[in-house]
Specification:
319 residues, alpha/beta, UDP-N-acetylmuramoyl-L-alanine:D-glutamate ligase, four-stranded mixed beta sheet, 10 helices, globular
């Protein structure tokens, strides 16, 4: 079984599905409601666990009600939390998420007090020797000192490193240590006029061996070994796009751990993220490996999927 370690954000989401975000200011009845864990790397690690990999999350929470809920859900999903840091007298971060019932698009409302936690400097060190046991390491822009040390240790140990960066500015130290960099459109537009080939070339200059840009309904593009590729988005009946990027990165890091090619990584990650969007919540719709393979077989019957062995799904790790 492959192992992925993630260093980054864990939070809690209160998801409120409304009929139409354009008219919510007038007041409305909720179509659906869900309270669920969120956070960039935390949700990515849930994806890894669902896909059959061994997932370990290094993060920080407060010793409060939200923190307990965050941990309980992750443990139910089989995510290893042995390296989690719990702080007293600090609020764990959480969001209110308004989801448009027509399109699945969402708006985040984030109370400021809990999010101050994500900017704290931490004392003490986790067990850095654990990094060498991973097949890939995924980081985001949170807990930067911890992520930086983890990336350096991974580079020393020959562990593949992946980055989920919502922005380029301020993350330069992390970017230099990434083997794989996948960014959303707005981050790509920090380095070029548009999220296209020129942006890929500029991102490649930051040091990663493979760079990619996710473009929502337009699919994704990537550059690896001086070759560019493109894949359209899979069409699904989208209910909620919350966490789609996080799930994409979790699937991507899992694929890196399994040694897949750039095209295989992008095809697989796009499929997993598309399936996620069919349910309310950032985690509810995350598929397992067999479901993902069936999805790809139905939509790409001529595609050779022999690389997508479902053997990983037979071992549930820490569950």
């Amino acid at each position: 079984m492959v192992k992925v370690i993630g260093i980054g954000l864990a939070c809690l989401d209160y998801l409120l599905q409304v009929p139409d975000l354009r008219t919510v200011h007038r007041g409305c009845r909720l179509e659906d409601f869900k309270m669920q864990g969120g956070g960039v790397v935390a949700t990515a690690m849930v994806a890894v666990a669902r896909l059959g990999g061994q997932a370990e999350l290094w993060t920080v929470v407060g010793q409060d009600h939200h923190g307990r809920l965050i941990e309980e859900e992750l443990l139910r999903e089989g995510v290893n939390l042995s390296q989690i840091v719990r702080l007293t007298n600090h609020a764990s971060p959480f969001n209110f998420v308004l989801v448009d019932g027509r399109t699945g698009e969402r708006v985040f409302l984030s109370p400021g007090s809990g999010w101050k936690l994500s900017r704290l400097e931490l004392e003490g060190d986790p067990d850095w020797s654990r990094i060498g046991s991973a097949d890939s390491l995924l980081v985001d822009g949170f807990w930067r000192p911890m992520a930086l040390k983890g990336l350096k240790r991974a580079r020393e140990q020959g562990v593949s490193t992946c980055g989920d960066m919502g922005r380029i500015a301020g993350n330069e130290e992390l970017l230099e240590l990434l083997d794989y960099l996948v960014v959303p459109r707005h981050a790509a537009e920090e380095v070029a006029d548009s999220a296209g080939p020129e942006a890929l070339k500029a991102l490649s200059g930051l040091g990663a061996q493979m760079v990619a840009i996710t473009l929502g309904p337009r699919g994704a593009i990537w550059l690896a070994d001086e070759e560019m590729g493109e894949i359209p988005a899979f069409e699904v009946e989208a209910v909620d796009t919350t966490g789609a990027g996080d799930v994409f990165h979790g699937a991507f890091a899992y694929g890196v751990a399994r040694g897949w090619t750039p095209r295989q990584l992008m095809l697989f990650s796009s499929a997993v993220a598309a399936l996620k969007c069919t349910k309310l919540g950032g985690r509810t719709g995350i598929p397992d490996l067999a479901e993902t393979r069936r999805f790809l077989e139905e939509r790409m019957p001529q595609e050779d999927l022999s690389w997508l062995s479902t053997e990983e799904s037979t071992d549930t790790g820490g569950r």
